[in-house]
């Protein structure tokens, strides 16, 4: 039932479960970084992948961008795991640019799926209840400031599908996406650097701070969704 403000009550969300999973992953990865044996074995794999990319740098960059695009479309996949390899191959600036470009292209694809293929196809990638709920929220609050908060707080793939369904202005969405992906790209790069350096404390601190930021912004977003328009 809609609330009196005209915005549907929040749908059952997987956000607490997602946050718990992210925290567990960060702590587990921190343990791996702190372990000389495990970190050494993974560092060897990173060095092997770096040599492989050096043989075909253009193809390697193209594959990384494609994988980054997929991570912007699918909630269960992330190229953050490949960040150490990317940093070793292209450096921090190169990795930051490749992540940003890949996520931007992935956002364009999610928008295209929502706009041109419709709800039935978008529902394959995002729960139909989630699409319905946030579509109502964005329809009533389509100002760019709301979209900025939404894109930072929510999983990155959601807004593209929703705005595509609403046939929102692509240019505005790209502007929002290009801004909001920068801090997460920086976080991924810093995590990758911490991993390569074997700095478990910095790795865990950056990971938990990123999760806490997302959770705080999500709380603001859900509070806004409960208010009257």
In short:
With 229 residues, the chain is an all-alpha fold. The chain is built from ten helices and no strands.
- Coarse shape: globular
What's the number of domains?
A: 1
What does the average pLDDT come to?
82
Structural class: mainly alpha
Q: Helix count?
A: 10
Strand content: under 5%
Major sheet summary line: none
> How far apart, in Å, are the first and last alpha carbons?
16 Å
SSE ordering: HHHHHHHHHH
Total number of strands? 0
What is the radius of gyration computed over CA atoms, rounded to a whole number of angstroms? 19 Å
Outline the low-pLDDT stretches. Answer: 1-12
Which percent bin holds the helix content?
over 70%
What does this structure look like?
The protein has 229 residues and is an all-alpha fold. The chain has one domain (15-226). It has ten helices and no strands. It is globular, with a radius of gyration of 19 Å. It starts with 14 loop residues before the first helix and ends with a helix.
